[in-house]
């Protein structure tokens, strides 16, 4: 009976894997990878929602009457490109942090911050 | 999903990036299975191509190894499991996968599917919705991409230097000699990649494709050229200032189409008034804004790539200057 929901569960699992990486790992690059996984799981969720059984890709053609919902496709299509642009921004920040602190590990950055506060 | 778990476990960031590429390609094929061809197209070119490349460039600058476990995974695991459990509980009320009568398919989707041919006259419904019904959304998204490009530029831009150091030149030349076959084959391929990008751009009305995908593919061809012939050559070929100008021009073109339709007495981005016949006007409008999207996406991707690569090169030069660079890291970055 619950088999019809399996796709959502895959999405939730992927999402949780991404979430786990983001909160449990200290490396900033790894966090960004986790964020990417999280993002992709949301994409898959939207596309799953838009899917229609026995439907076809939303490109009008002769002899096809059922199409998948085109709206989620549009949203996700643009979201992917926006996602890579923002990920690039995050990577750029990580590069600058590396230059400023000499590392991209969260706890070391905090340690250095604390030291600086104590000194000043 | 197996790959996602592998990503959690692996500490070598290089391997993580490789796995991310595979993950992107897999999700692209998943999108094809779910009938989302346009999305799959984008994910294949972005997730499996550009993003991996950017991450590789970034880890050459930030170091390859992740520090081994000092974090406390149990609290995190607990939080994750509770959230996941709640989400799965939430899905129990969802309509079944692929159900025709799900609420999502009830609201505006039927109008898009049934009327878009008369109203917009474009067989690819995704393009019709993207370019016409939700053009304002798309304008916003292009603006976000443009802003991200500016952000990367401002974070990673280098101070202008008057003289180029020549020390690197010899080694770079040598590397290119070694990859002669690769260089010649790819040089023959690049025009076809560019042609394919143009096809994707202008055929987006009839098949999967459009400005976003075409922009990424176009940028990928130029990035390939850069990887094979070196950053300095590429910077001589592609004028950086021009690329930055083009990023703005694309967005402006998009907005101007909207303003022109306003001047003609319709709403912002209502293309019906651009030509005598509403459908022809829609065609013209979609063509123009997709062109704008394509130009902006291409140039922003190039801006991002060139900023990263330029930064890396500058770092390498200073490191070589200090003579303290470790051999291992250099090897990783050279193979890029």
Note down, in words, how this protein is organized:
The complex is a heterodimer of chains A (120) and B (336). Chain A has 120 residues and is an all-alpha fold. Chain A has a single domain, classed as Helix Hairpins (Orthogonal Bundle). Chain A is 73% helix and 0% strand. Chain A is built from four helices and no strands. Chain A has helices at residues 6-24, 28-50, 70-101, 106-119. The longest helix of chain A has 32 residues, at 70-101. Chain A is elongated. The radius of gyration of chain B is 23 Å and the shape is globular. Chain B has 14 helices and no strands. In chain B, α7 (135-156) runs antiparallel to α12 (240-263). The model of chain B is unreliable at 324-336 (pLDDT under 50). Chain B has helices at residues 2-9, 13-33, 37-62, 73-91, 109-119, 125-133, 135-156, 169-178, 180-202, 211-229, 231-237, 240-263, 278-322, 327-334. In chain B, 39% of the residues are buried. With 336 residues, chain B is mainly α. At the A-B interface, α1, α2 and α3 of A face α1, α2, α3, α4 and α5 of B.
**Helix share bin of chain A:** over 70%
**Helical content of chain B, roughly?**
over 70%
Give the DSSP E fraction of chain B (strand runs of 2 or more residues). Answer: under 5%
Regarding quaternary structure, what we see is: heterodimer
Class inferred from helices and paired strands of chain B: mainly alpha
Number of helices in the DSSP assignment of chain B: 14
Family (chain A): Belongs to the CPA3 antiporters (TC 2.A.63) subunit C family.
Transmembrane segments (chain A): 6-25, 32-52, 72-95
Protein name (chain A): Na+/H+ antiporter subunit C
Subcellular location (chain A): Cell membrane
